[in-house]
């Protein structure tokens, strides 16, 4: 299943998780009354909370930590969705340094995890997030206090928080508290409310764009393409628009009718000239923005504003004047996350309540996303797209999408053009093909370019075997299915696309499914059942069992999927006499490790990355900046360091590998990684949908790229079909060979590298990579 952090980054309300009890949003002076769940008069859902699914959420008067009531989330094998949650939303109208959510939880037979979660939202984007997902609190546990913390971000406008559980089992929650700088939230200092913006005062199109389209002529599509480029250029360059004096979304709806009604190109261009002249006069700037500076990895793509054949003389002249007279002031529609300096797309409403279809809002979604890619995506050129053609080709697909589902599917295909594994329409993954509420109780992975069963759920059919290579599913050949699904996957490379399609490969309607497999060279036809997934299945490829172990006296093993920074010194002391240390990052690190582990592998200060950052006065320009440096620690690991990577290694995992590879005795073993690195920036889209981009560029110190290329291993190694059937970890075996050398026998290598029978730890989300 998909990890929950990405979903919770965007989760507020949806069809299943809608607020149904009619309660008003609490103030910080009254919220504490609801956090103890004592506002109950029945054992239905907890009063004052929303979430769901409804059939899994209850108030409980029998099992409490204190008082008379608690909240209970109870899930069984047939429970809908993948998790259950209770949620509250609170305006951030207070000041402070840190927000803390704490409370008491009791668990019974939780199969995956349970815990607290908290998110700070800005205007149209998430600015901070924390949850207990990485702590893997599961099983059966008596009442105990848990807590999570977040620094209060200046751009935060509301706090979204609650409790959740994933998998099966029962979670009770009671006596929650919200603290600001260690004091009850009711005592926090009040914040001076921000001054209203044009978005607060312009409400003309709140109920719809009033643009109706049932067809598009060729000239309309051409004119809309020009409008999309002009609208985006003005958004980030015209002083009135970039300065926040115009509700630019609604101005799009004001100009759209004239452009759609234009009988030819020149008429549409004349309408745009007239429109620009209604904005504040361009005039001569007194302090103009300077040209892009520094070593640029990407330059603004603005040759088109001088194309008089397409734009006409007057429109081209207006655009060139806007560019020459832009000022270096801050961007109203763009902010910057502190530290990493990736963009936040503030003042970009998600328009959750718009009734779809709405051609105007659907065109707005295309124009917003496309122009963000042009001006704020550090990997725009690496995506290798003809961007004007992408805009032109998607205008009819998105504008004419006849219902909400068709619109979302068109957005999936559009976003896939970014070739960025951080992208995807994260708010709508349930619609991405292959769609369905159930799946075969197996884990599929592409081995030797074939979808192969690599693990079985205990609830599944005994007919399926590990090592079965799927040839057809429900009568459709694998190649045909893959080709039809691939355009909906915004992956950076083929390895990541195979990974993501494999994770969803057997999804479909609940009930019977037919399967043709190749087993031991012979074909077999199987009739099996698609089921609701009842238990967590392994998605990482590291060893089951402990985080650290000595595979032998000479070989230490450390996996990062369950690593705790506080435990690293003890692990490294235990590994000190080994010939080599294997660091398994065929997963997503549970904590940020580049500098903690890197201190043991370098002998001198060592740079391992460089970044490209956008220039807000020159939208579309990305200049190199010096990156991070590992400082050596007091103890140095003298042996060989072997880093394991494959297609599940993404973002922070790749960044960690870059850091560890900087050590003089380090070598990378494995295969192509997912090749998506850089802190993510969320993009709201009309209709309440959400996507992301990698918001900064990550490169090696010599400016060699990583995006779409990934971390290329020094020693290539992939699992084979024979190895999967034999239960061997062939990539690990090659890593052991790197440490022990050619003198070690293959039998010795296999014995050291054979995974234990201990249960595999479940994955942690790939969400925000904080450097």
Give the integer mean of the pLDDT values. 89
Helix content: 25-40%
Uncertain runs are: 12-24, 757-771
Strand content: 15-25%
Number of structural units classed as domains = 4
Major sheet attributes: 6 strands, antiparallel
Number of strands: 33
Overall morphology: globular
Distance between the termini: 27 Å
Gyration radius (Cα, Å) is: 27 Å
Helical/strand content category: alpha+beta
**How many helical stretches?**
20
Task: Sum up the structure in keywords.
six-stranded antiparallel sheet; 33 strands; Jelly Rolls; 20 helices; 771 residues; 24% strand; Pdz3 Domain; single chain; 4 domains; alpha+beta; six-stranded mixed sheet
Describe this structure in words.
This protein is of the alpha+beta class and 771 residues long. It contains 20 helices and 33 strands. It starts with a helix and ends in an 18-residue tail after the last helix. Residues 12-24 and 757-771 have low confidence and may be disordered. 25% of the residues lie in helices and 24% in strands.
List the SSEs and their pairings.
Blueprint lengths: L3 H7 L21 H4 L14 E3 L4 E4 L9 E6 L7 E9 L6 E13 L2 E9 L4 E6 L7 E13 L6 E9 L2 E12 L2 E2 L13 H4 L16 H20 L1 H4 L5 H14 L3 H13 L18 E3 L9 H4 L1 H12 L10 E2 L6 E2 L14 H18 L10 H13 L4 H12 L26 E6 L2 E7 L12 E5 L2 E2 H8 L8 H11 L6 E9 L2 E9 L17 E3 L4 E5 L8 H8 L4 E5 L9 H8 L4 E2 L2 E5 L7 E5 L2 E2 L9 E6 L6 H10 L4 E5 L9 E6 L3 E6 L2 E3 L15 E2 L4 H6 L3 H11 L5 H8 L18
Parallel strand pairs: 22-23, 23-28, 28-29, 29-33
Antiparallel strand pairs: 1-4, 2-3, 3-10, 4-9, 5-8, 5-10, 6-7, 6-9, 10-11, 12-26, 13-14, 15-16, 17-18, 17-19, 19-20, 21-22, 24-27, 25-26, 25-32, 30-31
Helix pairs in contact: 4-6, 4-7, 4-10, 4-11, 6-7, 10-11, 10-12, 11-12, 16-17, 19-20
């Amino acid at each position: 299943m998909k990890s929950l952090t990405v979903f919770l980054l965007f989760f507020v309300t949806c069809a299943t998780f809608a607020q149904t009890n009619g309660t008003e949003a609490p103030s910080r002076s009254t919220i504490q009354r609801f956090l103890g769940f004592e506002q109950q008069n029945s054992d239905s859902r907890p009063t004052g909370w929303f979430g769901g699914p409804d059939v899994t959420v209850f108030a409980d008067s029998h099992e409490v930590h204190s008082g008379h009531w608690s909240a209970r989330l109870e899930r069984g094998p047939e429970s809908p969705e993948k998790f259950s949650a209770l949620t509250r939303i609170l305006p951030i109208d207070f000041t402070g340094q840190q927000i803390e959510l704490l409370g008491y939880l009791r668990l019974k037979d939780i199969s995956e995890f349970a815990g607290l979660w908290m998110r700070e939202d800005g205007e149209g984007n998430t600015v901070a997030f924390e949850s207990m997902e990485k702590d893997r609190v599961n099983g059966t546990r008596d009442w105990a206090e848990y807590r999570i913390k977040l620094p209060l971000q200046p751009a935060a406008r509301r706090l979204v928080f609650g409790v959740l559980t994933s998998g099966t089992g029962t979670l009770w929650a009671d006596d929650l508290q919200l603290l600001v700088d260690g004091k009850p939230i009711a005592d926090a200092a009040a914040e001076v409310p921000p001054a209203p913006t044009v978005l607060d005062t312009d409400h003309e199109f709140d109920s719809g764009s009033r643009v109706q389209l049932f067809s598009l002529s060729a000239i309309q599509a051409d004119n809309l393409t020009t409008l999309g480029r002009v609208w985006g250029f003005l958004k980030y360059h015209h002083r009135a628009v970039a300065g926040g004096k115009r509700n630019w979304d609604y101005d799009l709806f004001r100009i759209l009718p004239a452009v759609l009604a234009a009988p030819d190109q020149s008429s549409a261009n004349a309408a745009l000239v007239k429109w620009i002249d209604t904005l504040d006069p361009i005039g001569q700037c007194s302090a103009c923005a300077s040209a892009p500076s520094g070593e640029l990895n990407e330059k603004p793509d603005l040759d088109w504003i001088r194309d008089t054949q397409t734009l006409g003389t007057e429109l081209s002249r207006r655009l060139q004047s806007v560019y020459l007279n832009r000022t270096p002031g801050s961007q109203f529609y763009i902010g910057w996350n502190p530290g990493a300096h990736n963009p936040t797309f503030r003042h970009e409403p998600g328009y959750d309540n718009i009734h779809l279809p709405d051609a105007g809002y659907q065109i707005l979604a295309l124009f917003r996303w496309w122009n963000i890619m042009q001006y704020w995506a550090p990997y725009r050129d690496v995506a290798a797209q003809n961007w004007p053609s992408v805009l032109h080709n998607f205008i009819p697909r998105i504008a004419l999408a006849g219902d909400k589902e068709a619109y979302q599917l068109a957005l999936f295909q559009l976003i896939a053009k970014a070739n960025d594994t951080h992208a995807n329409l994260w708010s709508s993954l349930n619609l991405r093909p292959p769609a369905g509420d159930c799946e075969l109780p197996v884990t599929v992975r592409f081995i030797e370019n074939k979808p192969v069963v690599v693990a079985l759920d205990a609830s599944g059919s005994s007919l399926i075997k590990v090592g079965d290579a799927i040839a057809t599913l429900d009568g459709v050949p694998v190649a045909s299915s893959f080709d039809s699904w691939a355009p909906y996957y915004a992956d950076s490379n083929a390895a990541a696309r195979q990974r993501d399609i494999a994770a969803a490969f057997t999804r479909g309607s609940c009930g019977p499914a037919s399967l043709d497999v190749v087993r031991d060279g012979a074909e077999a036809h199987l009739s099996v059942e698609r089921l609701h997934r009842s238990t967590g299945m392994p998605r990482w490829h590291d060893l089951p069992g402990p985080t650290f172990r000595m595979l032998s006296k000479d070989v230490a093993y450390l996996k990062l999927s369950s690593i705790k920074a506080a435990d690293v010194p003890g692990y490294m002391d235990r590994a000190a006499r080994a010939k080599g240390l294997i660091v398994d990052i065929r997963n997503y690190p549970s904590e940020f490790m580049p500098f903690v582990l890197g201190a043991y592998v370098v002998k001198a200060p060592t740079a391992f990355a460089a970044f490209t950052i956008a220039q807000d006065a020159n939208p579309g320009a990305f200049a190199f900046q010096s990156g991070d440096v590992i400082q050596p620690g007091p103890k140095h690991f003298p042996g060989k360091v072997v880093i394991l990577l494959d297609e599940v290694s993404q973002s922070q995992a790749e960044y960690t590998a870059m850091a560890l590879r900087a050590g003089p005795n380090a070598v990378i073993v494995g295969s192509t990684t997912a090749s998506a690195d850089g802190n993510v920036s969320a993009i709201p889209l009309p209709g309440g949908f959400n996507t992301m981009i990698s918001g900064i560029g990550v490169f090696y110190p010599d400016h060699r790229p990583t995006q779409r290329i990934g971390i290329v291993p020094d020693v290539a190694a992939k699992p084979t079909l024979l190895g999967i059937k034999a239960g061997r970890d062939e990539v690990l075996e090659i890593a052991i060979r790197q440490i022990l050398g050619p003198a070690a026998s293959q039998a010795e290598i296999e014995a050291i590298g054979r995974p234990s029978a201990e249960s595999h730890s479940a994955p942690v989300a790939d969400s925000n990579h904080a450097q």
